[in-house]
Amino acid sequence: MYISYPFCAQKCTYCNFASGVLPRELSVRYVEAVLGELRAVEWPWRPETVYLGGGTPSTMESVATWLDAIPGKPWREATIEAAPGSFDAERVREWVRAGIDRVSLGVQSFISRELARTGRKHSAATVSDDVAMLRAAGIERISVDLIAGLPGQTRTSWEESLDWVAKLSVPHVSVYMLEVDDESRLGREILLGGKRYGASDVPSDDEIAAMYERAVERLRRMGLGRYEISNFSRPGFESLHNLKYWKREPYLGFGSDAHSFDGEWRWNTAESAAEYVNRRGAVERTRADAAGERFYLGLRLSEGVAEWGRFEEAVGRFMREGLLEVVDGRLRLTDRGVLLSNEVFAEFVGVPA
What we know:
Oligomer: single chain
Number of helices: 14
CATH superfamily of the largest domain: Aldolase class I
Strand order of the largest sheet: 7-8-6-5-4-3-2-1-9
Structural class: alpha/beta
Largest sheet: 9 strands, mixed
CATH architecture of the largest domain: Alpha-Beta Barrel
CATH topology of the largest domain: TIM Barrel
Mean pLDDT: 89
Number of domains: 2
Distance between the termini: 29 Å
Helix content: 25-40%
Number of strands: 14
CATH class of the largest domain: Alpha Beta
Low-confidence stretches: none
Radius of gyration: 20 Å
């Protein structure tokens, strides 16, 4: 299950999520609204994994307010997303008491000038201190997020960020290639041909691809294998929660802009925190395409898929183009296919049964 906490201390320039700097009064009402929903739900099963995302749930005053209302503790995995520098040792101890055993740090970069352009305020030293704090509290399942393609980023500065990953020896890393969204501040500035937020210094697609490929190589040497397009881990440290999404296991979402799936239907809640608290905004409900979803979600995973007969024509074309390959009887993306995965997936979304 997933719970959204869409409140942030600052809004990142590249972000288009339904989150941001929102009134404190709204956050108080929001916490109570989610708690009411958790207490009222008739659980169809006992949750195995819990994920607090956002926004910045690490700034929430007491995560136990929500977690104590969820059955199944101790869960197989309970994750909280955290902004570097947004918590202290006492808060971490509270997380552990509440059942949290995994923390995903939204680092994005270890380079101060790159962070400043995104609106982030932490430093490499902040991240290092946070990792030490988490380990001191007994949390070993630590993940670090990086973005390849930030304004002003170079191959040299990217190497510096990867050096920090090696130094911290975290067991899980997520690497995202920057996708500029027209609804973000950075995206709008690029469309207007402006220079704010470093819009004129965003690396080219080829540079971003080269950074990603370099990360794959270096992380592999650190013992972190790629198990999904953007995710790398040591054996046994994969995100159990996110694997449920990619393997189409049922999940429930709570809070604003949260999505749910029962194996047959998908639905989501009101997009903004204000709409959610006021119970406004329609909940969209759509029937899932089991075969199509199983196929393209499975292709996200390095293990690939075992069945592809429904898509034989398109698969054959992508194999000829060097984007897909068959290894040990399973179809998977090639290294080049990973870089062009959005184009590959688009071919299979909404294909008639």
